[in-house]
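Researcher: We are triaging several targets before committing to wet-lab work. For this one, the compound of interest is copper (II) ion. I'm pasting the protein sequence and the ligand SMILES. What I need is the predicted three-dimensional arrangement of the protein with the ligand bound, expressed as C-alpha cells, so it can go straight into our comparison scripts without reformatting.
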Amino acid sequence: MAHTTRRQFMTKAAAATAGIAALTLAAPARADGHARTHQVAIKGFTFQPAQLTIQAGDTVTFVNEDGAPHTATANNRSFDTGRLTRGQSASLRFDQPGRYAYFCEIHPMMKALLVVE
Ligand SMILES: [Cu+2]
C-alpha cells in the first residue's frame, strides 16, 4: 500500500469556478471500485512520464526527486500541486475526463500531459 498524503489544493468554490471536481474528495470513485494511483516522477527537470493516461477517479502522485523545487500546474489552472521541494509529493484525484496539459511554474519549459479517460 502506497503511503500517500491527500491534500486539498483548491477550495470547492475555486474548483467549481474551474469547472472541475477533480480535487473534491467526496466525488464518487470509478464505478468498478478499482481506482488506481499512478506516479509521476519529477527529476532532471522533466516529468516522467511526460504523457500519462489514467481513468477518471484515479489519483496521480507527483514526486519531486530533484534538488530544485518544482510544481505540477495545469495550464488552465484546474490543478496545482503547489511548490514541492526534494522528496515532497502531492496526490491529486482526477474525476473529470479531459486532456490536461501542465507545466512547472518555476521552470515553465518543463511541460507534460495528463489524459483522463
Ligand atoms: Cu520546476
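Researcher: Any quick observations?
Model: The chain has one domain: 12-24+32-116.
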